[in-house]
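Quick illustration, no need to memorize.
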Amino acid sequence: MPADRNASELTESEAVSELARLAKVLEQANAAYHTEDAPKISDAEYDRLKLRNAEIESLFPTLKRADSPSDQVGGPVSEAFAKVKHSQRMLSLGNAFNDEDVEDFTNRVRKYLGLRETDQIAFTAEPKIDGLSLSLRYERGVLVQAATRGDGETGENVTRNARTIANIPQRLTGAPAVLEVRGEVYMSHADFEALNANQTAKGGKVFANPRNAAAGSLRQLDSEITRQRPLMFFAYAWGEVSEPLAETQFDSIKRLEALGFSTNPLTRRLTNTQDMLIHYKSIEEQRATLGYDIDGVVYKVDDLTLQSRLGFRSTTPRWAIAHKFPAEIAHTFLEAIEIQVGRTGALSPVARLHPVTVGGVVVSNATLHNADYIAGRDSKGDPIREGRDLRVGDWVEVYRAGDVIPKIRDVDLSKRPADSVPYVFPTHCPECGSDVVREDGDSAAYCSGGLICPAQAVEKLKHFVSRSAFDIDGLGAKQVEMFFRDDSLPIKEPADIFTLQQRDEAQFTKLKNRDGFGDKSVTNLFAAIDEKRKIPLNRLIFALGIRHVGETSAAMLARHYTSWENFFAAMKDAREKSGSAWEELLNIDGLGAVMATALVDAFHTETTRDAIARLVQELDVQDVAAPDTTGSPVAGKIVVFTGTLEKMTRAEAKARAEALGAKVSGSVSAKTDLVIAGPGAGSKAKKAQDLGVELISEDDWLELIATSS
């Protein structure tokens, strides 16, 4: 069953089925948790299912559903309450499960903002309260409305109930004319125990935990019942305001405190990742003595101007993340280490464990990442687990990161068998026997077999016919697998798809006479294949399934080379990884040496090159449409950005230049037309001067392109 298998093992049809199942289960879980205040699954199980959904969507991006749980916040609004449309959406937070995730978060923030490592940026850190989100709207200092988060767009009107909460102010002095305060309704441990004792004595409902008790109490139809429940409120954010509370997150929280709201005393303003993690550890150590439930620490960019620049994804802000506390740990037996070969040829080791319950979920598999991880070192050669390796037969410590992803934390050497031997990572592919290679600087090992490797070939064909690639009606993953294993009418490489009709006509037993086919279905299939002979360049490049080349990279390459002839010639000329074609490839801004190497290697591996050549003979590859550059002063020019841009980030500048028809390069050469230099411009600016290339400031650049805005 798809639900019992790793996401990486699913076929496309199984992925469709599993995404449908997850959408239904998570929709029911959201309703139970957010609407009915009666969760049917644990938080850990909910997170596991949602992460599984996201993992499958990342492996099969074209299968993402319109009702994807990844795009949903909260749950449906109960019909028992009047609806309130939030003036600003109430979003959820992305999650971090370890120190590295937090480091990645701060690095992403810096990169997006175009900040250097030496540029200081402050963050706030505060406990993540495990309660029910609530929005309070004040007009001219008077509480006029209270609403739950609901689905993020629309919440439930619980104004009468919110007025009964003791530490929610009814009136404010000195507040903005319009102020929407957001925070969390919760119940203390002591009050929760007293409430359950009282409920038991009366024969009433007993709550599973303080969060459920708080949510159920706030969402009573009778506000007098809410009044009898010991609810509290922590303010930590705001929505609509008629004037800013302050210039920073921290000072805004202090302003809310001055207005009479309870704010968390453990909130701190910190200036580096190390201090954020130290504060996280401090809060974690105090967790059991706080007297209320928390499940992590929330980090937010402190400067509100930077928050505004960072903006939002579909359901989460870029400027905040929730650092979850560690999961439950268990010990079990490592029964085997198996190797899975993926579409790109990557060899992924998986630990097969004696089943054990961790965080309420039975775990029988765990990721082992790569050969280094098994050997007890990281990609830089530094020890992990103090250098202890992992071996079949070991007793290992298993945990679930954020109560979600099964991983091995450590090994108990005292229980290691006397005849134990180190695990030897395969030097030959377990699927096809080809050599296993590992490039310098790459943590993963790869099968060199390419299309002759069954594990790669069938997956590459599935990728080729996926929706973002050729998207041929009637030829999905299931059909690809069938034809791949068919001896009389096989599809072993992409070109075979386009010779299918011709080969069928030459056969005695026709495809239309086979089980599962008929005149109409075969006619439709051949017509759908013929329809896709005409294909845009970017979709063809993506469909080839070359390592590191995704949809965005394929579009970038297509824009640069414009035609298949140009692209193919460039890959051919760059064969020796030197010369002008290689330099041009490297200088495509945003590409890099790793992708360039993968591209050139793909076209100069004989089996792959010949397969591509046979495919292109069957196609009419369409040149990419040039952007509308009417009136653009930089159309067709090669531009280079160097130094520090102060008015926009490098990503913003590149996108604007390309939209105007310019080609953005990463280095200066005699072919460069224009160099835009900000403060700190060094060798590139000097080289431009030496070559006589026009050199302008960022302000001059903005003035130049303003005429085409």
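The first helix runs from residue 12 to 35.
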